[in-house]
């Protein structure tokens, strides 16, 4: 049971990563508004930068309840300092910050 959270987190992240982006943004009515770089490429290009911020423990591709894809940034403790350092968007893709606590690798 002590690894339950880690297993659930890993499975959830795996499912979210499998979803790929078409490179188009939609305005909520299903209409394409502009072309942007693939969200997976944007995440990959900014992961090191985000992970270098003290308190960031992970970066992933996720989605809001309405299906809008986002770049998720997991932090051990959400503070105003960390919120100021993490951008609200990256290359046109929204960024969501989530407090997850410390994440440790499974042994």
What does this molecule look like?
The protein contains 3 helices and 6 strands; from the N terminus they run H-E-E-H-E-E-H-E-E. A 4-stranded mixed beta sheet has the order 3-4-6-5. It has a two-stranded antiparallel sheet with strand order 1-2. It has one domain: 2-Layer Sandwich (GMP Synthetase, Chain A, domain 3), CATH 3.30.300. The chain is globular and about 40 Å long. A hairpin with a 5-residue loop joins strand 3 and strand 4. About 11% of the residues have low confidence. It has 107 residues and is an alpha+beta fold.
Radius of gyration: 15 Å
**Mean pLDDT over the full residue set:** 80
Number of domains: 1
Low-pLDDT stretches: 13-24
For the biggest β-sheet, the strand order reads 3-4-6-5
Quick overview:
The chain is of the alpha+beta class and 107 residues long. The chain is 32% helix and 29% strand.
Q: Key terms for this structure?
A:
two-stranded antiparallel ribbon, globular, 4-stranded mixed sheet, GMP Synthetase, Chain A, domain 3, single chain, alpha+beta
What secondary-structure arrangement, pairings included, does this model have?
Layout: H1 4-18, E1 24-26, E2 32-35, H2 39-51, E3 56-63, E4 69-75, H3 80-85, E5 89-90, E6 93-99
Parallel strand pairs: 4-6
Antiparallel strand pairs: 1-2, 3-4, 5-6
């Amino acid at each position: 049971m002590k690894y339950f959270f880690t297993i659930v987190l890993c499975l959830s992240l795996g499912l979210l990563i499998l979803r790929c982006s078409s490179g188009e943004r939609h305005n909520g009515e299903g209409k394409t508004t502009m072309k942007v770089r693939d969200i997976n490429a944007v995440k990959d290009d900014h992961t090191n930068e985000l992970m270098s911020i003290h308190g960031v423990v992970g970066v992933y591709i996720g989605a809001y309840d309405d299906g809008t894809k986002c770049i998720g940034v997991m932090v051990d403790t959400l503070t105003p300092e960390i919120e100021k350092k993490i951008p609200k968007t990256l290359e046109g893709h929204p960024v969501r910050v989530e407090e997850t606590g410390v994440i440790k690798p499974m042994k």
